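Tip: read the tokens left to right.
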């Protein structure tokens, strides 16, 4: 019951407050991780492993120790603190806060503004994107970050409590900072990328299931099965393939990175991306949140019934 209650409270806080505009813990962690990188960077895999441990594990242990100490004195306060931690770890509302300006700019046919807005949420070059490519990039971002910013944190919270949610989001942040195949990060960032892949493996597939349940299930399952494995990321592929199929849109294809156009596999099937596909992706994630909460509350009710039956 407590996990369902804390998750509901955290998501309600996120819906009402959004991300903190000042003093967000992840911003502070990013600075800490930058300092760790400057101190420990070397072109070796082991350097990346050590840097990851130094950056992440003290924070996770501090959160776990604090909650354990508070719980011994006040379980209710510990639950409230867990809700705050989970609220800071999830970013459901931020998906809409970042995607809606893109959709609004496209609706008003302000392509430069749409390119600027989508550039805040994707790593590809945006200056040469046309309206369809901007909409596709935004739709892909919403679907992929439904896992990274919402469902992954919820999964690890249910499994390991607030420290699990913190572990997941910090690992995800380091993947975004270090997990690139560039000369600087090819070896140093290997651990950050692989650890994120491991932590995301189960949440990504549960996210894909949620997308299928909340959209066109037949098409979502088909796209997941036939296209998910073609994507370079073992987790983003199933998530985006199922999500694209669920909302009947065709994603992937050519995209510019670092001055060069890269041909990517097609994900999904149906219409070309537009404003409607961005908003459909946001609705799909929102429905997925309701499904996850319903499953948590159902599980809590079953456990409570089993406990009373054995009492």
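Filled-in amino acids:
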């Amino acid at each position: 019951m407590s996990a369902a209650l804390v998750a509901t409270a955290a998501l309600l806080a996120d819906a009402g407050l959004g991300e903190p505009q000042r003093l967000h813990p992840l911003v502070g962690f990013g600075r800490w991780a930058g300092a760790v990188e400057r101190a420990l960077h070397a072109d070796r895999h082991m350097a990346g492993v050590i840097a990851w441990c130094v950056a992440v594990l003290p924070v996770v242990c501090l959160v776990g120790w604090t909650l354990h100490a508070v719980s011994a004195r006040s379980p209710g306060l510990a639950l409230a603190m867990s809700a705050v931690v989970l609220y800071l770890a999830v970013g459901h509302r931020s998906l809409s806060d970042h995607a809606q300006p893109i959709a609004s700019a496209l609706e008003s046919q302000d392509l430069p503004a749409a390119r600027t807005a989508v550039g805040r949420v994707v790593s590809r070059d945006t200056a040469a994107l046309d309206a369809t490519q901007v909409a596709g990039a935004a739709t892909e971002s919403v679907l992929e970050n439904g896992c990274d910013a919402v469902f992954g944190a919820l999964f690890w919270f249910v499994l390991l409590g607030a420290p699990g949610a913190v572990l997941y989001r910090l690992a995800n942040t380091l993947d975004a900072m270090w997990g690139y195949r560039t000369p600087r990060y090819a070896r140093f960032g290997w651990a950050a990328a692989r650890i994120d892949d491991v932590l995301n493996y189960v949440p990504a597939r549960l996210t894909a299931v949620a997308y299928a349940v909340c959209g066109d299930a037949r098409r979502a399952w088909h796209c997941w099965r036939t296209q998910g494995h073609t994507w370079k990321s073992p987790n983003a592929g199933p998530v985006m393939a199922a999500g694209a199929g669920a909302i009947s849109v065709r994603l992937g294809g050519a995209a510019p990175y670092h001055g060069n156009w890269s041909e990517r596999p097609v994900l999904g099937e149906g219409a070309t991306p537009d404003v409607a596909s961005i908003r459909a992706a946001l609705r799909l994630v929102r429905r997925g949140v309701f499904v996850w909460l319903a499953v948590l509350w159902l599980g809590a009710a079953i456990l409570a019934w089993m406990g009373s039956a054995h009492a």
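The CA atoms of residues 46 and 188 lie 8 Å apart. The two ends are 17 Å apart (CA to CA).
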